Amino acid sequence: MCPNISTIKTDISVYNERNRRRTEMKLKCLAVLAGSLLISGAAIAEYPERPIKLIIGYSPGGAADAVARIYSAALADKLGQPVVIENRPGAGSTISSAAIAKADPDGYTLGMASGTLYGIDKYVYNVSYSPDDFTPIMRLSMSPLILAVGAESDINTFPEFFEKAKANPGTMFYSSSGIGGSPQTSSLVLENAIGTEFTHVPYKGGARPCWQLRRGMWTSRLVRQHLCCRSAWAGK
């Protein structure tokens, strides 16, 4: 149930043009901040002397992984050292967050996290860290959520989705990238607004549930805009 494709393409073009210069500036700032974070004196001039690790809490192929790989490649070019992606999916990305919190503060371990790190994590999971254990550098991206169904679905509009969900509590399945993430919590808000119940199927990232949604395994999914559009443009 993506919006009109031509509208999406226009929106993305405007969004990309508006954020192109911001992204370039972020890369420059990120390179400087990565080099100065918790490093002082002569060490700054020598940094980095070895590859840098970038930990993310989601599986390869999803939105977070895509963003991480774009920035890691550009950051490696700026710093002159490889930036190696380490995917540690599971438990709503709290496994990766715990690893980042325990890493040596030497500038060679960076992490990419979602807003849940500073919000819902401690209420959903028994985490060993707090927001104070991290030093935020900058916001890398924003990606709106779109309610999507497979191309073969009999649902074509939101009113149709609403009526079907209202009349069939518990029988409509939706997938997400994990418990506690924004797709899942937003689905709970939608569920409450409609006054029905969905059946949740969590994963360790966004790529696989998107692939299965296209094949009709799930009724719907709140999916990041760029993943939805990629499938919609292909008619899937």
UniProtKB/TrEMBL annotation:
Pfam families: TctC. InterPro entries: BUG (IPR005064), Bug_dom1 (IPR042100). CDD domains: PBP2_Bug_TTT. Belongs to the UPF0065 (bug) family. This is Uncharacterized protein. It comes from Orrella marina.
